[in-house]
Amino acid sequence: MTALHRFLVSALIAASALPAAGMGYGQFDAALDGIASRWQTLPVEVIVDGGTLFGNSNGLALVQQAVDAWNSVNGVPQLMLRPPAQSADDFALANFASWDVDDGKIRVVFDEGGEIFAAVGLDPAGGVLGLGSTTAAISTGVALGGIVLINGHASVSGSGDLLGTIVHEFGHVLGLTHTPVGFGGLAPLPNSKRPTMYPFSTGFDAGTLEPDDAAGIRAIYGH
Ligand SMILES: [Zn+2]
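Above: inputs. Below: predicted complex with zinc ion.
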């Protein structure tokens, strides 16, 4: 019997909606139906796209850096990168439909030309750098699988903050929504101090997490 599950889909905030905001990350509602999504068993295994970028040592180092950033905030490892030798799959539009989205793992996908973004109705040139999505059980919110999708069109054009985007989308898959901390008006923060879960890329994120990000993850996983 197929388990009832929900697939939390991404929405989009136009980058032009905020002044001097840079490129928009993908937005994602982690609390659909009022039930927050969380992983029951940690660490969650991360499978890396074996195609261009993530299939080479530079790309893998970026993903490892993003994994390490999240693993450092809660006292227990939350993510576990599968050894590269086992990451032979090239996730692409051609095999998109065959991915198992509820096998308990997170797939990190580099969408080379933005083909997958286009297939799900987003303009690859429209300013969204990445998407984070989770499949979760309807009744409990327990996460069943996750995808970090990186817009290769934006990244290869040089306009994206690739490491910052990967870290941000991992945050969504772990169950975090966007934060209001750092928005101009109430309590503006310099770019270097804005939380990773700020909804727009500043282009200056070195993959480091801020206190607001750590507080969010501790609220979900309790350390
Ligand atoms: Zn986001």
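The two ends are 35 Å apart (CA to CA).
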